[in-house]
Amino acid sequence: MNSGSVIPLHGWAVALWLIVLPPVALAADVLETPAAGPPNILFVMTDDQGRWSLGDYSEHVATPNISHLARQGVRFDQAVTPAPVCSAARASLYTGRIPSQHGVHDFLSEEDSGQDGWLAGERLLSEVLSDAGYRVGLFGKWHADTQGWRPVRGFDRWLSYDERDAPWINQYLHSGTVHFSRDGAALRHTGVQARFISEETVRFIDEPDSRPFAAFVNFVEPHFPFSGLPERLVSRYRPLADQLVAAGDFSSLPAAGAATDDLPHREKVAQYLAAVTLVDEQVGRLLDALQGRELLDETLIVFTSDHGHQTGQYGLYGKANATVPQNLYDDSLRVPLIVHGPGHLVKPGQLRNEFVSLLDLFPTLARVAGAAGDLDDYDGPGQSLLPLLRGERLTRFRDLQYAELGNARTVHNGRWKLVRYYHRDPAAAPSDYWFDLVHPLGERRPVPAPSAAQQEQLDTALEAYFSQYEQAEHSGRSIWDQPRHNAMEPWRH
Question: Which of 102, 98, 29, 79 is nearest to 380 (CA)?
Answer without folding.
Answer: 98
